[in-house]
Sequence to fold (172 residues):
Amino acid sequence: MDHTTFTILRLIHVLSGVIWVGGVFFVSIYLMPTIRALGPAGAPVMQHLAQVKKIQLFFMAMAFATILTGLAAFYHNSAGDSEWMRSGPGRTFSIGALFAMVALIHGATVNSPTAKKIGLLSTALQAAKGPPQADQLGEMQRLQDKLYFHARVSISLLLLAALAMGLARYVG
Fold:
């Protein structure tokens, strides 16, 4: 891989990673607690993000871009050299990659489906004539609690990945 291609690859990796981690951080630390605090008034915001803006697909695209370009950069840096793989940077990049991959799998299998269910339930609640039923409100609360918890799991994994990536070159 020539220098220009590698530079573009790293640029895509860093930018998509910043967008992924920063976006998930903002959503989990600021947006979700605000939507929860608004109660039923926050439902249209979540519905719009999930169903119109397709936020979960956007984050998945950023995650895949980050991981695929990261794997290509990892392959380029290691050049198949097992000695480099055992070095401090090689091990630290590997740990960071593992955290990022677990975060992607977690987001795809837990967070994204939960957000989709919240959006669908929100649509059903808005379309219903009259006030929501107790079981519907209970289900919404359960789904929001689940997403709130698992968003924090995801951001923890992503912050650990970003920390490993940022420190990898300095690990001896």
